[in-house]
Amino acid sequence: MQGERINRRTFLNAAGAGTLGLLGTGLCTPEARAAAERVGPLKLTKIEAVRFRRDLRIQGIAPDWTWVRLHTDQGIVGIGESYSGAGHEAHVAVLKAYADRILGRDATDIERLWQDLFYQISYAPWGGAETRMLSALNIAQWDILGKAAGLPVYRLLGGKAQRTLRVYNTMNGWPINGMREHDAPEKLTEFLLSRGIKGIKIYPYDRGPVNAAAMHGGTFISQAELRQSLDPIQRIRKTAGDEMDIFLDLSSRWNLTCSVLIAHSLEPYGIMYLEDPMLADNVEAYATLARQTSIPICISERLATRFGFREMFEQRAVGVVMWDVTWCGGISEAKKISYMADTYKIPTCPHTGGGPVLWFASIHAATSLTNFFIMESVYHLYHDVYPHFIENVPAPVEGYVTAPDAPGLGIEVRDEPFRNGDAVIESIAEL
Amino acid sequence: MRHEETTRRRFLEQAAAGPLAALGIAALPAPMRAAAGAAGPMRITQIDAVTFRKDLHIGGGNGNSREDGAEFFWVRLHTDTGLVGTGETYPYDQGQLGALKDSARQILGRDPRDIDGMWRTLYFDQAMRNAGGAEMRILSAVNMAQVDILGQAAGLPLYRLLGGKTRNRVRVYNTTTDYWAIDDMKMGPDTMKIVGFLLDRGVTAMKIYPFRGPEKYLSNEALEAGLKWIREIRDGVGNRMDIAVDCWANFDFTSAERLAKALEPYNIMYLEDAMLNVNAQSYAQLARKTSVPICMSETLATRYQYREFLEQKACDVVMYDVTWCGGVTEAKKIADMADAYMIPTSPHTCGGPLLYICATHLSTAVSNFLIMESNYWKYTHQFPHFVTNAPVPVKGEVTAPELPGIGAGIKPEIFTNGDAIVETVAKV
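^ inputs. structure came back:
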């Protein structure tokens, strides 16, 4: 490793002396050359976890995400994140378990650290808290590299494939000004359209008054329930016609047979995609569903790594790929999954319904994708919740959100939560 | 433990007094009658994590002192009936303690007899964000503790709850490594001494790790060095010793294929984990290209992950680890699924004593069994430090304990002498 570094430095010095000009690399911008020069070895010296007060609620939301902060010997600090509905204990414990494999490593050897940790966690069945922390560490490494290079992360990922990102708004359990998807779909539609947001994701099968999933545990759905569940969809169409795109999430509650029944009942409504009707643990079931409906199938933030997605592509089981960059193995892995999807002509729709670092990291990753479809956004989160922790939360303008141009992820974390005890720093390990 | 006895005894007395006979249950055989009644409703009232002191050294011919203690982790479920079930997973790396704390609220208050219902709850929760890792290990341990409780309540050994005896004795091979060594003997210099030691005890199969390549590439030099071990065994004792080869997922496909081809002349029992078990297509390709049976893998969990490997004909032997794969009931389902493909099972047991004993129960019950892993150092030195009933092979075979539940006979003194550290994670 030491050897490589010296080689690169020597090489760049040689480049400065004019050798590279001869090789045609003179086309490299002075800024990029300077950036590369600045990124010397960055030894990881300290790992911290940041969790939030257990009873903290921001507008009714409990911040259930865990931040990982990586410190380097150059003073640059990177931030990563993951989350689970269950709590922080497993995250913190996993970081402690793997700390000695992380400390002392060069933060900019992103691929190798990922490989080493993934191999290690694959010693037993991989996934779970280990994969979430692998994701968080990887995000923090990209943040460090960007800050060291003086470049926003999307630049390091291949630059702008699109200038700005179209978003839809996910309702789920996050009402807007008290309006919920099942009792005020007309007002919600008007509110979103007035802000230029022309996509909405709703949950008619496992929320609201019908809630057929809760009724039968996802094992059965009656014709009456199939019809009643269409109510919010019909009301949105009536309010906005085709101006509002409708996305449906089924929260993985259903078996294959019910999924087919639901898909068939939705055929006339021009649904953009049907997301996670079943758990994503049997590709054959998804391939069967995909063959039986014209609605694109979107799966799934529940999958991680290229290895988890591979069979979905091979079996033609997926119409839109969704990953969660804080779950799927990090920014590096999200990009690789999307490259793989792109070879199958399949677009990407990032999952962002978690914490603020997820929101920033998704924006950077999606900006660089050649197979970007549309991105999830949650008004309640970026408008009400994230600003409690972050100074510069990107908010959609006319239905589009744009990546920040500051180095790294460009996140300006507020001091206030650390002063008033909302955020608690826990030292995991230090060199 | 005293509570269990009292409860069961009291029940049997009541049963004898007649009220059950009036319900027609008298028609059932006496042991089943006792079982069904004794296993009445109960509630999980307390969850303990049991870890072991870090400086514990067991000794006994282990070649590497870093691996000389307890690398496993226990979950104890207490119930309002006084019954206590113990489950296990490993390695103890703190991750599972955190995961246990995070999932405690899903476990506490539940009836431990609702085994599939609890499994579904815990599995669904983790599958919502990629199942596996620490959460899967905890699910496995909780499931094991539940079946332990059910067995105790029913007064039946675990294998009886899994379908009873398909075989009386379970054939084992010895996993032979430098760190869990037999009397400090090492493969290479002591190969034939080890082989002789095992054959003398009737153990006629061994698993070895002969191949190390630089990175994922297996050099010709490394390949030849590994084959030398195998030739030495074959030259020395012919086919009296069955040989399994494990690779710890070290190689890429290209090297795995060369390795399998090179092993073909040696009648290898199976080739295990030549690559990471993350791509069934690559394994299917390997299986098509070689006559050496392909075994995989304790690194997979749940029927859902094994499915593609079975469908794609990517393995010839199914290995599962009952403390990783989702627990005792999931291991049984995986084995039953493999049986539908005529594929036998070979359980992984190089963890703690409860893993070893539960794998013995399962191997006693399942219809598709090949051979079970065992390790001499573990069953002669490590396991007896913690439990009294870890079976020691006789003529190369082990038998499951006949006590209710797992029947490990956890030694009470480990909780008083400082070896075991009990942390109550949650309590009603």
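Residues 156-401 of chain A form a domain with the TIM Barrel fold (CATH 3.20.20.120). Chain A has two domains: 41-150+415-430, 156-401.
thumbs up if we can close this ticket
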